[in-house]
Design the sequence.
């Protein structure tokens, strides 16, 4: 059905209309909430799943379920083939050089913890520095804080301006011989800022410093090429990219991964074990201890294939247009302030309404069938930087439309009317 929509839609309609046609691939979006048609604008928290992903997971459990890598029987070989096939799909999706560089993890959080605790513990020493930005998600702050505390090192922070753009000249000054690694969000989940990561990677590399990019909010919205970015590590979560929860990816440069100690240990990550000594497995298995989320992996593969067929360049253009429309419409509402006005933004519209707490906005919007997120978005330092406790955040995917934005704006106007 999806193939049919994609192929038959292609010759007659432009990219925008073609993407809107794909909305019906997402069964959850058809429901009503509080008696109103659902308008789902919480995609930065998690995105909805197309039928093809749901079907693939169901088929896996109905026809292929087995544990991978260890079995010689038919089902185990089928499940292994399916799971390892996804590794090849992810390699191609990120344009990594080799499948050995694709590590399956639970999500972005686990990917960053892996790098912090494996690479960080070896390379960060007393009086060294780890450099992150002022707009990181907690998952790219706390693991580094823990490593710095343990090692007697210091966490340094690249500041940003009032628009939510990183100050690249300040970044340059913060890159010193003490800096052992840089961790940066590709796209900010709280502000929507798209950071100039390619330039920032080159600046760090000029001083021999490796860079980890948190791609959780980038991968659903733009084409990512890890070799073009030249980053050393790149992390993303399956559930934000139209795949299932419980699966994510860490891309790592092979030479770095090879020299890193295991993060977790147990089955599958070993070649052989005696009570005296264990020899670890080769990449990528050295970092994949225990039974992974096999169904999650298979579902992620289906999601990436689906997204690739839709064309990420077309998605980027469509969402850019949608974000501009939403920004213009919401900014025109009296007392609304947009938080995060960077020149380069993707899919996220954070805002406050003067005199009304974001949680009240979220609750009233829910009564209108509009799902947004309110709070600190796991980026409390961003809230501190802007002097606010929280924001309301609408975040978009390619299945959202200008009509969704119109409902959002009308509902915000209603909030103001009701709460005054
Ligand atoms: N990094 C960013 C920028 C995010 O937006 C998120 C989740 O919202 C994460 C990391 C953590 O992702 P996960 O909870 O899937 O591990």
Sequence:
């Amino acid at each position: 059905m999806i193939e049919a929509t994609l192929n038959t839609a292609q010759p007659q309609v432009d990219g925008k209309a073609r993407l809107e046609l794909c909305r019906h691939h997402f069964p959850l979006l058809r429901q009503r909430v509080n008696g109103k048609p659902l308008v789902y604008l919480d995609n930065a928290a998690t995105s909805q799943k197309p039928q093809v992903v749901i079907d693939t997971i169901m088929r896996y459990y109905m026809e292929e379920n087995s544990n991978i890598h260890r079995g010689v029987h038919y089902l185990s070989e089928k499940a292994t083939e399916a799971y390892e096939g996804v590794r090849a799909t992810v390699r191609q999706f990120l344009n990594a050089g080799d499948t050995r560089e694709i590590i399956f993890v639970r999500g972005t959080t686990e990917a960053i913890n892996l790098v912090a605790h494996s690479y960080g513990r070896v390379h960060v020493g007393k009086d060294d520095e780890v450099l992150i930005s002022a707009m990181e998600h907690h998952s790219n702050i706390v693991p580094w804080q823990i490593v710095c505390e343990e090692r007697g090192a210091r966490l340094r922070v690249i500041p940003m301006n009032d628009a939510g753009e990183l100050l690249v000249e300040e970044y340059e000054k913060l890159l010193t011989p003490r800096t052992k690694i840089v961790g940066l969000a590709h796209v900010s989940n709280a502000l929507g800022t798209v950071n100039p990561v390619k330039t920032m990677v080159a600046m760090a590399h000029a001083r021999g410093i490796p860079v980890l990019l948190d791609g959780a909010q980038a991968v659903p919205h733009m084409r990512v090429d890890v070799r073009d970015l030249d980053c050393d590590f790149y992390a993303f979560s399956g559930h934000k990219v139209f795949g299932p929860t419980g699966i994510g990816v860490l891309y790592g440069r092979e030479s770095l991964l090879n020299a890193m100690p295991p993060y977790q240990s147990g089955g599958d990550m070993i070649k052989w074990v005696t009570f005296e000594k264990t020899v670890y497995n080769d990449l990528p298995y050295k970092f994949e201890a225990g039974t992974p989320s096999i169904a999650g992996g298979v579902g992620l593969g289906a999601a990436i294939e689906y997204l690739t067929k839709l064309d990420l360049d077309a998605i980027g253009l469509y969402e850019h247009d949608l974000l501009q429309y939403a920004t213009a419409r919401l900014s025109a509402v009296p007392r609304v302030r947009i938080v995060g006005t960077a020149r380069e933004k993707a899919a996220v519209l954070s805002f406050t309404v003067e005199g009304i707490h974001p949680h009240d906005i979220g609750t009233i919007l829910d009564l209108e069938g509009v799902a947004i997120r309110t709070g600190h978005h796991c980026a409390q330092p961003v809230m501190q930087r802007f002097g606010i406790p929280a924001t309301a955040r609408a975040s978009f995917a390619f299945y959202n439309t200008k009509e969704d934005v119109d409902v959002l704006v009308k509902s915000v106007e209603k909030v103001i009317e009701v709460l005054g």
In short: The radius of gyration is 22 Å.
